[in-house]
Design a protein that fits this description.
- The protein is an alpha/beta fold.
- The chain folds into two domains: 198 residues, Alpha/Beta hydrolase fold, catalytic domain (Rossmann fold); 46 residues, no CATH class.
- The protein contains eleven helices and eight strands.
- It has an eight-stranded mixed β-sheet, sandwiched between helices.
- Strand 5, helix 3 and strand 6 form a beta-alpha-beta unit.
- Helix 2 crosses helix 3 and helix 4 packs antiparallel against helix 5.
Length: 264
């Protein structure tokens, strides 16, 4: 089947966003699939999916604001703001009803969209989904305490204090935090502070969860918990880690094709 794929810039909610749109030559039998990447990633990181799904599916992949070729949000955004951006981007691209495939942070956004009263989604597939508050160990709270102390030192200690704050920050910060620009660090704080567990019972669309059994970023217990709380959800466990969609690309894409092509 002949395919046409193009990239475009869409201005939505004050952001110049980047989108990939793949259209089949014949009218698709299933709704379009919107693909959302994880934190710190981009459309390219989802390439095994955009290139591996069947040619008769219409696909839209977005660089979320602050990542890839999309500009940053104009202010710190929470997950709801990202969900509103995705819905507005879909409006701009002419997608009224669609399925969603999200990885990690992209799955957070999917959960918010699927729990809203608007019936925009046909189906949702989440892999390595973030959104459930992790089980913290004592070492985590020690790191948080160090980070807070660093902020105090930075605020009152002048240039020397700010240098010390940066050293303390680098001792305790995650790689995502260290890699983020100052503009995106506020967004990361907003995103990580939100526990989406209460929203899971409100997800009203058929949902497939695909998890790596060795996922260390979003451990498998989170997938099992989501399966319990989402009313119409199933869980598939594959051998792999947080990026099992790429590690087991052929198997993942076969599962995705079967699930997403069944939407109507």
């Amino acid at each position: 089947m002949q395919l046409t794929a193009d990239t475009s810039t869409i201005r939505v909610h004050g952001v110049d966003g980047h989108a990939l749109h793949r259209r089949p030559a014949a009218p698709p039998a299933a709704p379009p699939v919107v693909i959302l990447h994880g934190w710190g990633a981009s459309i390219e990181a989802m390439g095994s999916v955009t290139n591996g799904l069947p040619a008769d599916l219409e696909i839209v992949a977005l660089d979320l604001p602050g990542f890839g070729m999309s500009g940053p949000p104009p202010e710190p955004w929470d997950v709801t703001a990202y969900a509103e951006y995705v819905l507005a981007a879909c409006d701009e691209l002419g997608l009224e009803r669609f399925s969603l495939l999200g990885h990690s942070f992209g799955a957070r956004i999917g959960i918010v969209i699927a729990s809203r009263p608007e019936e925009r989604l046909a189906r949702m597939m989440l892999t390595g989904a973030a959104g459930i508050k992790p089980r913290r160990k004592p070492a985590y709270y020690a790191r948080v305490g160090t980070a807070k102390a660093g902020r105090v030192v930075g605020a009152v200690g002048g240039a020397a204090g700010r240098r010390l704050q940066e050293r303390m920050r680098r001792r305790v910060a995650s790689q995502d935090w260290l890699d983020a620009s100052e503009a995106m660090r506020g967004t990361l704080r907003e995103v990580l502070a939100e526990d989406l567990t209460p929203r899971l019972a409100e997800v009203a669309v058929p949902t497939l969860l695909v998890w790596g059994d060795a996922d260390e970023d979003t451990p498998l217990w989170m997938g099992r918990r989501m399966e319990e709380l989402v009313p119409n959800a199933g869980l598939v466990v594959l051998s792999g880690g947080h990026y099992v969609y790429a590690e087991r690309a052929a198997e993942f894409n076969r599962i995705a094709a079967h699930f997403l092509a069944g939407a109507s």
